[in-house]
Amino acid sequence: MTDFIPKFQIGDHAWYATVSSENNYVTCPDCGGTGQITVIMYDGTQVSVDCQNCRVGHDAPTGRVKVHDRTADARPVTVAGFSVGGGGVEYRTSESYLIKEDRIFTDRESALECGAKMAVEADKKERWRIATKEKDTRSWAWNATYHRQCIRRAEKEIAYHTAKLNVAKIKAKEPA
Predict the structure, then answer these.
(1) Confidence of residue 172 (pLDDT cuts 50, 70, 90)
(2) Would residue 33 be called left, alpha or beta, if left means φ above 0 and alpha means ψ between -120 and 50 degrees?
(3) Cα–Cα distances in Å, from 46 out to 32, 43, 74, 121, 144?
(4) Rounded-to-integer distance, Cα 103 and Cα 18, Å
(5) Is the separation of the CB atoms in 112 and 17 below 8 Å?
């Protein structure tokens, strides 16, 4: 059995590669900043519905989507322990971080280089996420169909109540 020698010993000073992020807003890729989507129904009818991608909670759509702009960061740490497992070596620091071996370095420059790669990858994943409709539970077609059904139901109710009102006018007693 070979003796395992970790990259860092307890008490060693090292650099932790991480990223910092700042909130920013970009134009919504679904509605182009208008807050509205146009849906074309089977009969060629065009209806406009609220954009769900740039809507937050129950608020109206804003035409903008929140993103995080990330930058590389390197934090100094002191190794307080380590563990070896199936996932490799993980270092515990006196700053209460648990750091995988590929994110801890002897110098700040190497940590910043790793952090820059992490920032680019995280930004790429996030930009892909906002370009997809993963957070919508209903499609645009469902949304348009639902509202058209509500309009048809309301029109039928108006017709029904109008007819009942007209019958009441006919049956009303003449004033004496």
Answers:
(1) low
(2) left
(3) 18, 9, 52, 39, 9
(4) 8
(5) yes
Q: Which residues of 49-85 are buried (b: 16+ CB within 10 A; e: fewer)?
A: bebbbbbeeeeebbbbbebeebebbbbebebeebeee
Check pLDDT > 60 for residue 133: no
Cβ-based burial of 92 (10 A; exposed 0-12, middle 13-18, buried ≥19): middle
Beta-strand runs (E) in the chain: 13-27, 36-40, 46-50, 64-85, 88-93, 98-100, 104-105
Measured in residues, the chain has a length of: 176
Residues 6+ apart with CB under 8 A from 15: 74, 75, 76, 77, 104, 105, 106, 107, 108, 110, 111
Of 145, 132, 155, 150, residue with least CA distance to 39 = 145
Q: Tell me: the pLDDT tens digits for 69-87? A: 899 999 999 999 988 887 7
> Do residues 36 and 50 make contact, with C-beta atoms less than 8 angstroms apart?
yes
**Which is nearest to 15 in space by CA: 87, 90, 99, 128?**
99
Beta strands in 62-167 (DSSP E): 64-85, 88-93, 98-100, 104-105
